[in-house]
Amino acid sequence: MTPISQRARPTRSCRRFEAWLSEARACGVRAVETFAEGLEQDGDAVRAALTTPWSNAQAEGQITKLKLLKRQMYGRANFDLLRRRVLLTV
User: Fold this and answer.
1) HSE-CB of 6 using CA atoms within 13 angstroms
2) 20 to 30 Å CA-CA from 65: which of 2, 7, 21, 43?
3) Coil, strand, or helix at residue 35?
4) Model pTM score
C-alpha cells in the first residue's frame, strides 16, 4: 500500500470517498474489503476521476458502439468491413 504522503491529497470533494474507504476496509465483509483494497491500489486514478471536470464518456460510448457492431457480425468482420460499417452508421 502506498504511504499517505505519496498518495493524492484528499480534497474536500474526496473526503467522503476517504471516509467510505476507511469504513469499507474495516467493515468485516470480505468482498467489500477486497473492493476497497482494489480502489486503494488505484487510488490516484479514482481521486482524479472524482475531482477533475474531465470525462471520457464520449470515447466510451463510441467504443461500446463499435463493439456492438462487431458482435452483430459474430466476430467475422475483418477491419475493412468493420470500418465500412462504422462509417455507414455515421
Assistant:
1) 6
2) 43
3) helix
4) 0.49
